[in-house]
Amino acid sequence: MRITxxxxxxxxxxxxxxxxxxxxxxxxxxDRTVSRKATVGTLYLSATHxxxxxxxPETRKETWVLHSLVASVERPPxxxxxxxxxxxxxxxxVLELLVPQERDATDIHASLARLSRPEKYSELYCLSINPxxxxxxxxxxxxxxxxxxxxxxxxxxNNLWVGTPANSEYRVCxxxxxxxxxxxxxxxxxxxxSSKFRSRGRFPVLTYFHQxxxxxxxxxxxxxxxxxARSQEDEQMMQAxxxxxxxxxxxxxxxxxxxxxxxxxxxxxxxYENEDHYTNIKLQFIGIENIHVMRNSQQxxxxxxxxxxxxxxxxxxxxxxxxxxxxxxxxxxAGVFIAKAVAxxxxxxxxxxxxxxxxxxxxxxxxxxxLDPYYRTMKGLMLLIERDWVSFGHKxxxxxxxxxxxxxxxxxxIDQFVECVWQLSEQxxxxxxxxxxxxxxxxxxxxxxxxxxxxxxxxxxxxxxxxRERTYSLWPQLWKDRAQYVNPLYRADHTQTQGMLRPNxxxxxFKMWKGMYNRLEKSAPPRHSPADLLTAVREETQQLEQELTxxxxxxxxxxxxxxxxxxxxxxxRNAPDEHPSLRPSLVLYVFTGLSPVDVYCxxxxxxxxxxxxxxxAKSKMS
Amino acid sequence: xxFAELIKTPRVDGVVLRRPFQPTVEGTLCLTGHHLxxxxxxxxxxxxxxxxxxxxxxxxRFVGTLGTIxxxxxxxxxxxxxxxxxxxxxxxxxxxxxxxTLDSVSLMYPFFYRPMFEVIEDGWNSFLPEDSxxxxxxxxxxxxxxxxxxxxxxxxxxxxxxxxxKDVDDDTLRKAAAFRHAGRFPVLSYYHKxxxxxxxxxxxxxxxxxxxxxxxxxxxxxxxxxAGKRGYIIDTRTIAVAxxxxxxxxxxxxxxxxxxxxxxxxxIERSSVLQESLIKLxxxxxxxxxxMDRWLSKxxxxxxxxxxxxxxxxxxxxxxxxxxxxxxxxxxxxxGTDSTLQVTSLAQIILDPTCRTIRGFQALVEREWLQAGxxxxxxxxxxxxxxxxxxxxxxxxxxxxxxxxxVWQILRQFxxxxxxxxxxxxxxxxxxxxxxxxxxxxxxxxxxAKLKLSQKTVSLWxxxxxxxxxxxxxxxxxxxxxxxIWPSVAPQSLLLWEGVFLRWNRSSRCLDEAYEExxxxxxxxxxxQNKVNSLRRQLAELETDDPLQHTE
Lengths: 622, 552
What we know:
A: 23 helices; B: five-stranded mixed beta sheet; 19 helices
């Protein structure tokens, strides 16, 4: 049965009627990692996914690709054996299909091009698929995180910082949240005046308060200073921030841009704070590049991953010329500077870039991760993203290309934050409650639009779209699945989970994030992961603890024989074998062999997937 | 010669020791015949004991009368000693220079070292060729142990006993030896139990420019092929390098004379190139002022990772020929003592689970490196800081270190398949360059026999195989894996070996803590298992007692 693919384009209008899915048979899925090996199967296009089902009756392996994660669909010239389609996803996977009939390929290409580029929010997954199935559950999902409670956790409001109603109904700044904290001495005229002197009205507000030193991190956008303009209110605002930290005589203003960029902005009537006009500020440029540089840099990393059998030189040269790790280091350096100022010097920091929603979000949130162990837990990281990214108006829909829009607005800003956290977790293997999988999953959902959290570009837009009534929140779902995101080495009472993290940012401490950019593809052999093994061991330990408790409860009451007998028998059936090597929960991880011989061919040797990952455990020699 | 002649100032007070990531220590510096010792003479501070043999080079500087000696060690650590008094400093420096470059092997520390532990099992007898041949005999009767090299006359770098095809007599071996570089005729390196295929190794054939051939050599290697089967010759050199070797009397096996063999050339570099690479890599790792671009470009320019990839790829190729193609393999480069051994030993780690155990790995090092005649003494005379001034012909090269690096790469990709941990690899690296044990002295079995090492020194294996040491070197994640393990050799799968190259350049505290945490999790699990099992046993006993109790 063949159905033309043109109809799929109508699917948004008809998705609720249970129509037969369009499909094409005898499609070959080509394994790009290994010597052009292909599996034959059927390709289905649903409203939400492209699905490839292997014909092999034994495995019937399915490959699902979410339309919203499709980055591009390419159609190389038709060959005698059929038409190729190359689907690249936003999470760096590549699917190559060989479709026997050219007409089918054209149809699939057209359909996917349309399906993967929604033009309206209503076409997005979270708004188009059963958005209102369970009202109670949905509402509950949105109350899972409470930002205000997190401010209370850091001790805000207090006698230094207070909530201001200035931005209720988004009157002063439409990209800021409605609830904001400012220094107690900042009067409404100061707030409004400062806001008028800042790009897009983004005046300095509190993002993190450090209870130990009373120093704070504030964020804003660049001042509209040009070459000579000044604003009394803005200067008063900065003064108020300094005074809100009784322990310090000055504040740092961290401009996360390269100094040259900041200076160039003056010509457009923007720029940076003139140290002569603001008393007691110390200006510090960090040098994180702009979104266009970052976009190109990531593209080079992606391109590098597609090079067939690269030599070590190709790889290292590509890594260097992409500049990616240099940028990651710059972002982390910004976080380290801020964290040190706050925790070690006890000096408050005001952070901005141009608009104060990209580099500023990166720098502020990383500083929080470094400063506060809470943000290294699963819930803490969720809250941090909800605060520094979602509530403060990071332009998710623009940056992550949710709708077919301006490609120049797209940039992997949050990717870099997530990667910095990963780089930290490599240096501090016991410091984070979550594992690499959690970070990868989190990033995936920023792009996937399966949940409403990251739609739109500001709190106001999300409110106007009534997302809380129409979609689900991601956070409770991640929390529900937390067992698979746990870092087995994390202990709440471990030294690495206390206090501030002081990472080493020497270049050799940064690594290419293989788990993100070189995900294992289908045919690659499963690898041992120490983290997964340890997780299994810990789960087993819990069962043992449980069993021990049971025994100990039973043992003293040695007379209850019949009951005990029964109990033991059932338990021991589930209990681990006495031979350590046969422990059922662990057998899973013993390497299970490799795909057939032709996987490793003479010439193409060197592409057989990769492995490892997880914590690299090592120890010092005596 | 008396060491005292070389030590003009045996003791200096008020010396300050500076090391990265560790507190400064002030104390007394003492020089002995084999050690540089710095002690603060306080109870709770550690003493520095540095073997002179571990010192790669020193640099001296003076500011007024305060002298500074920078000591660069073969294990890559760099320490600084501030010594008050110019004369003292100069004396110490010249003593260190003399003592760290002693010419005579018999003056080395292993000849003076007396073990502070009880030798339970003498490591010199732990891995005898006769014993490993017994294992082979239990699997096949196609091989015999030949004593043709009993007096090291046929091949100076081979051991007295080698395994060769049963049907080939010693006369044929002698003739084949004359046709191979330094007499290194093809011998058995590994027998793959699963399919009976073998890996052999040798030196290059001496074909020369006029294409000399040797019927006995052909007969010898053909004897390892099953009827109608073809084998593979893996030449670790590129075809261009192999061609050039002809001009110097060397060469490679021609298709015409070896029709049953398919020859594959790989590109493992000569040892002098590897040494350059190590120097550049360590230089890059030690300079913390680099920005990211500079670091990555220095890392690339060192080519170290390229060598790792090439060696691993060649080993995978050899393993693939044997396990997947079901063919026998002959591996050689030029001498057959460097790249050849890297390939044959790594291939065994891939193929043979025994080699992934602590003892099995020792046996592998013993068999494929020590017995097989890797010139440890020459290769490890200098490490990354050596300037070569002490030796006329430069022959140092990190051949063994590269092998260990490749093993580390496989270990990292298969963290549960090895009985030993990274510690064992680092330990072997250290001891190959400087040691109190005699294991890595000399360049061949012949030299070791002449030095009477087994009588006069202690074997490293005697120490490693004590239960407490074996425990320290063992991998808590180990689960015996009887399968062949295929490492990925894609560039992104191969990492810089931080445990060696960044070891002294950053604090490893957090990583050490993670390791301890991991050990703790596993130990606790085992402890609980024992408890649960013993409780179960007790309960079972109670149940069998039941009838008695009831009858009472």
